[in-house]
Amino acid sequence: MTDTPHHHTAEPQRGPEPSDVPAGATRRSVIATLGGAALGAAALGLAATRATAATGHRAAARPDADCILTPEQTEGPYYLDLETVRKDVTEGKAGVPLTLRVTVVDATTCAPLPRTAVDIWHCDALGVYSGYVAGGSTPDTTFLRGVQLTDAAGVAEFTTIYPGWYVGRALHIHVKTHAGGTVSGGTYHGGHVSHTGQLYFPEAYNTKVAALSPYRNNKATRTLNARDGIYRSGGSATLLALTQAGSDLGKGVTATVVLGIDPAATP
């Protein structure tokens, strides 16, 4: 199992995503030599939402009455602390349009958490991360990364694309929540990380998306959720609920999920 992105040249396989990147490190300097570290924090509880994985469809995500703490998962080596506040993170990247709505609630009180910074990053259709130095492929790029603050209902919304995949990992979006910071100059400053996790996609949709352009040009072997060791450590808790925009999947989908967090928690 790896969390190394797919590129057009063959790469050696590695172990799971490392969770021990130094807290103050500049992530832009992290390169392919990272890997082989132990998996991050184990699952802490059941889902804040319930999945029907067999069909790939669920009802719209909403806070569960139990408000169970969402499991933490590893950050991985591809995080960049850019903290750029923006809704549209596509930067012209081709792919199935994806509207991502993340609802953040207090796992203890079930109350929505407004002004929480939701920080996402994921690979493009061919499995490449921005800002990742590997053979000079994408240094100093920022596509598919961004931060949004939750509204009064605890919802943060992004305009992005359905992610692709790379060797050893199921399709996923990385996510952090930050509490207590402020926004100035279009950037989120201060505060502390209150949750680190990953969001996953129903296989019924993954299979359909993989047949579309530009995803069908991705030559990496696609790993199913059930065969991804990181997904198996609590990933079912953050399986996204997808709603197709129309009969044509290429027109886009909306994905929703609820994160139950402890806003006072720190890494």
Q: List the helices and strands in order.
A: EEEEEEHHEE
Strand content: 25-35%
Mean pLDDT value: 81
How far apart are the termini?
A: 24 Å
Count up the helices: 2
Radius of gyration: 17 Å
Low-confidence stretches: 6-65
- The number of distinct β-strands equals 8
What is the makeup of the main sheet? 4 strands, mixed
Structural class computed from helices and strand pairing: mainly beta
Name the overall outline: globular
Strand order of the largest sheet: 4-1-8-7
Helix content: under 10%
Account of the 3D structure:
There is one protein chain. It contains two helices and eight strands; from the N terminus they run ββββββααββ. The chain is mainly β and 267 residues long. The protein has a four-stranded mixed beta sheet, with no helix packed on it.
